[in-house]
Amino acid sequence: MTKKKHLYEVDLMRCFFMFGVVLNHVASTFAAALGNKATPAGRFLVSTHLILHFPRFGFMFITVLVLFLGYWGRPEKQNWPVFWKKRLSAAVFPTSSGTASFWPFSC
User: Fold this and answer.
1) Interatomic CA distance for residues 57 and 36, integer angstroms
2) Cα–Cα distance measured from residue 85 to residue 43, given in angstroms and rounded to the nearest whole number
3) What is the structure's pLDDT at 10?
4) For 55-82, what is the mean pLDDT?
5) Could you give the CA distance from residue 79 to residue 24 in angstroms, rounded to a whole number?
6) Are 58 and 13 in contact (CB under 8 A)?
C-alpha cells in the first residue's frame, strides 16, 4: 500500500478557520461586554462579528473533509462501529455534563 500524499493546503485552511473561530469567540465576548450601545464602535463590532460566523461553517466542512479523505479508499479503516465509538465516546460526556450543569438555569 502506498502512503497518501499529505495535503498542506488543507492544513492551511484548517489553521485559517480555527483562527476565525477564535476571533468569533473573542468578538462575542467583547459584544456581550459592550452591550447594545448604538455607538460607531458598537456597530462596527456587531458587523464584524456577523462576518466572523463564516469560519464556523468552514471549520465543520474542513473537519468532515479531513475525515472523508482519511477513510476514503481504505477498506481496512471502514469499521463503522469503531469509528462512531471513537468519536462519540470523546463527545458524549463533555456535552452531557456541560448541558446538565446549565439545566437548572434554563427553567
Assistant:
1) 26
2) 45
3) 84
4) 81
5) 36
6) yes
Q: Which residue has 475525515 as its cell numbers?
A: 67
pLDDT confidence of residue 100: 59
Exposed / middle / buried, residue 56 (Cβ in 10 Å: 0-12, 13-18, 19+): middle
pTM: 0.59
Long-range contacts of 92-98 (CB under 8 A, 24+ apart): none
Number of helices followed by number of strands (H, E) in the chain: 4, 0
Vertex 3, ends 88 and 5: CA angle to 5°? 85
Instruction: Report pLDDT for 104.
Output: 56
pLDDT band of 1, cuts 50, 70, 90: low
User: What confidence score (pLDDT) does residue 88 get?
Assistant: 78
Residues constituting the chain: 107
79, three cell numbers: 469499521
